[in-house]
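Subject — a protein and its fold
Fields — amino acid sequence, structure tokens
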Amino acid sequence: MATARRRGIRAVVTALVLLAMGVGVALEVGDALGIRSEPAAQMQPAPAVAPPAAAPVPPPRIDRVAAPRTVRIGVAVDELHAAIADAPARKGTASLTVLPVTSGGTDDSYRLEGDAASLRVRAQTEAGAVRAVYDLAAQIRAAKPLAALLGAHAASRLGLRMTDLGAVGVRPDPAEWEPGTDYSHASKAFDDVFLKDPPYIDKTALAAAYADFDTFLRHSLANGYNAVAFPGFAEFVTFDDVPGGPVYAPGDEHRARALAMRAAFAPFWHRAHELGVKVYLRTDMLALTGPLQTFLQNRFGSLDTENPALWDVYTAGLDELYRATPDLDGVLIRIGEAGTVYGVAGWDYYSTLDVTTVKAVRTMLTAFTKQAEESGREVIFRTWSVGVGAVGDMHTNPASYEAVLKGIDSPALIVSTKYTLGDFYSWLPLNTTLEQGSQRRIVEFQSRREFENFGAFPNDLGTQYQWAMQQLLAANPHIEGVWVWTQDGGPWRAGPMTLYLKTGFWQLYELNTQLAGDLARDPATDVAGVTQAWARQYLSDDPATVDAITKAMTRSRDAIEHGLYIAAYAKQRVSAIGLEPPPMMWIFEWDILTGDSAVLDVLYAIVRDSDATAGRGVDRAIADGKQAIATVAQMRDLVARTDASTWRSPKMRADFVSALDYELNTLRMLGAYRAMILHQGQWHDTLAPAAHAAWQTDRAEFEKLAAAHLARYEGKVFTPALNLTAAQLGVQRADRDETMAWVARVLLAVALAWLVTGIVAMRRRRTGRALTVAARAMWIAATRPWRAFETTRGMPALGRALLLTVPAVLLVVTRAVQTSFLSWTHLAVVLGAWVLFALVVRLLLWRRSPWPVVAAVGGVVVLRCILTLFALSLSGPGGYWFAFWTAPAPRTAYITVAFALFVWAFVAGGWAMTAQIGARRATGFVLAAVGIGLLVPSAIVGAVGLETALTVWNDQMGLLPWGLSRILGITTYLGIPDATPWAAGAFAAVLVAAGILLALPWRRPVSRTAR
């Protein structure tokens, strides 16, 4: 009796310990999820306005131009003549005199003198004279009188106005865009130029690329830009003179290719230089080739980015490059994105994410700025660190910015930062890190907004750009420039084939390029006037048509902000898994309508909590989407009602109407999806039949509109359909929730009946029907495993069969229900591990009876299934995961009990074997079996690849965004080391070894006297 009491006390203590451990695990899970939100400070731009358009003023013919004969002024005069030639009409004649400049420099102030018939430009520098001519050309394109420019014009507020490379060198091949599944960030610029073998350069393609580049430079100069970020670095360097070098062995093609490429592109950089355009080589760090990586690893033991000597290799490469090509002005460095997403197959130039610590960044910048100062160049460092390593929040966290950059005050250093507190999304606050620091700063803007369908929808950012620029300039006197992305950002071939100055309706996002350039020169620019000037330049000079276009554009931001975003969620600053998900999320990077539970459930919870009145937050969010649809319909009516004959070309009008049709079709589909996912969340949250009925109605509407969207736009390169795969998988899973809930209820009733049968029969003798005997034995063995041997001894064959089949069948079906019968991967891993555990135990027991451990473990499995089935019975797997993501208290309680029962299954199994083989050996058996159950799946996952395994599992479970693995990689995004399965396998091997040692019979040595 005393022994039984001690065992009972020991069991209670063990249970309490396991529950305490379960609480710890649950709290750790909650902490790891870190799901929380807080209101985000919104930008406060002035409302967009659409003043009446004035009558167009035809330009005069300029029959005489007297100007200094320089390349820069000559190209500017070419633009002036082109503007006059492009005007629908001309009236009168005029002359232009550009007085000789008296000095060089960057001051671009000037004075325009004379009258409408005789114009004179007076400037101190060539930069001022050139600007004056470009301003005259812009005035003509805006259909405004040239005389309005008479007077003094102050120097541009910001002297550095840089662009990306646009679509220079990019081949518009529709076959590469049609699939819509290439999420590579590689532009493949100059792909036609590069040859695999000597001479490495196709001269015909190079000549075409040079002409392409010259056109881009001329266009950018006309828009007010004077610098360009040119991709590449390692491709142009031989690394002959690096310390400990050379890097490349004699005859290595990397060296020969570098020389060929340098010779090929030096004329590009020289052309930019003679036009007054600075060139910065744009590269990720670490930039590598195969031999370069081998060289660094051999010399330093690893890619040790905290070692100053490693950076001497790169600075020596820059010294070499600047000596060979003096027209380069510096280097632009990014550390936050790299890897295969930017790589090109068969091209041995790549980058890795290795600059991830404060010390590494500071060491790198110290080396690069020293080299820049000595060579008379500049280093532009991007703070875009995107969650990588200890510097991961440098882009958005003022404290991290200071930790990384405080004290690095080289005059050669320029720090570049996006104007939004995150990526180029709407609803994000202004990036406050731009208001701090002693370094020279430039601000990044994006014209072709990648997350807002790559500029395929009208999207006038004028008032937001202006507010941001004015706020930042008032806060930080060190801001001296902008970097405007005219084309780049995101995947190149997973969106519309709109290539800047080449294909598609690129004129639509050209507006934002013009706005950013004008605001950089004068932050007080009339942004509505810029929109009107843009409309006159590209679309129409008819006042009524310009009015209609301008009115439509003033509404474009509202349509984007409320149609592509769910505002109640987007207004929040959300944290999850140690990261800050962006304000869109339901459309995941960049065109994937997501269907995963993590995003959609959290999104619903935030929308729900946005209004204290029950259901009102959901209703308002749905109404918000409908209003965005109405806004686009109004925009379309404004443009469609214009007289086609007033447009510069029928194609332009057709493109604009087509863009609005595309937006209207997309937002209608998104509106139905928004209503569907919110009502789905509401059903899981409240279990209200009305919410479920609304979800069913919304689902039918979404499926209809989705089919129409795909039928109309799938495969279209200029107006591609959204990727609906993830959303459709989500609908498929949601469709099964109610059925799965009913299956779970039936199984729960059966499992509870089995459990009650065992409890009721506990005080009876071991006689009766086999079912009752088996249920009784299982309950006793699960709760009092030390009695497992006695309760299973002499059990009839049918009873033993039930001991094995009941928990096995219940486990299989429960897990199948939990996955909606859609995840064979989940079932294979879970059931495979249990089967391995059972087989190992059976082999170790050998001739001993396995039924005590079968009864003990099987009984706990039944209890564990009952817990899961109860959670599933409310509203199916969707409701199970809804509670996991959004309800901390139920999640904590569930994990606590589930973990305790899981571990208790092995404790009970070992305890049940104690009567047969003793406590030590029983512990060894369990450890060995658990180790094998973990080792084999770990080895399989390791062999397959963790990323691949997680992708397959997540595709079937729908927990994390489907696009995560296709774009960023689940392991990369969540920071899971690739070696994790091997580490788990190593731990499992230790368990197996320890288990075998404990399981072996230990014979005590026989004493000599005993012999």
